[in-house]
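Suppose you are handed only these lines of text.
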Amino acid sequence: MAEEELKPYLITDPAEMSVRIDELRAQGKKIGLVPTMGALHLGHLSLAIASKNECDVTVVSDFVNPTQFAPGEDYEQYPRNLDADITLLSQIGSDFIFAPSPAQMYPRGFEANVHVGGVTKTLEGAFRPTHFDGVCTVVLKLFNITRADVAYFGQKDYQQVCVVKKMVADLNVPTQIAMRPIIRERDGLAMSSRNRYLSDDERRQALVLSKSLDKAEELIKGGERDASVVLDAMREIIATAPSAKIDYLHIGDPDTLGAMERIAGSVVILEAVRIGSTRLIDNKLVERK
Ligand code: AMP
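From them, the structure of the protein bound to adenosine monophosphate can be written out as follows.
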């Protein structure tokens, strides 16, 4: 009975979602949104818990957004399990789960596209040129549908947070963006819905991502200021995994992501590495005052 009461209310229709939220906003409730593509894990749940703690109403959106995948990427095989997601969200008491269909989000005749320049051009944007248009378009739609006061994003997708912050600033979107830390497996691998694509052997090899970031942090904290030395040390660690292929390794300014040759002040270290056919990303902020 108690469990039943904690089940999040499942909504698939965007118009119904907005009506429900408008009722709650009229009562002065603060709305927290956690945008996800489902296949939930503790990384997602940490965001939902943050929203539960800081807002009156928590909406978790669960939508594998087709427009952020390019042809040939993993849209079709991306894991989907709404029932398991509902069960997990019941355990933390999320209020709503918003799980529209692609046709409900992009009905026939849909023509809009939200494009942010600058920070979308590099790193993920260089390897996935249409990705951030898809992200910005769906995120703005989700903000508008849920009228979110605060939206929670994971540091796991660091560049995505930079892009969404820029979109919100440039377009005067009244939603506050909150970034929360990366949740990792015990051995350091950043949790990701895509980790389930890895074979046991690839799963072991995937540890080179977090290990290379740890090494970079150790070097920088130890006084290394030459970014190329740090990047070489990372490359050396990644090379120990026979199935690893680096898409990029980058040391940049935490706000603009602009590359740094000499390390001064705080930096973000970002990496994308393919382990076999699975593309993984990870990053680390190294803060210095
Ligand atoms: P996704 O379902 O992969 O689109 O992710 C939805 C949200 O969860 C994004 O804001 C991600 O950055 C965040 N997220 C994914 N994995 C993690 C993680 N391991 N730790 C923290 N946040 C995460």
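What can we learn from it? The chain is about 40% helix and 20% strand. The chain has a mean pLDDT of 96.
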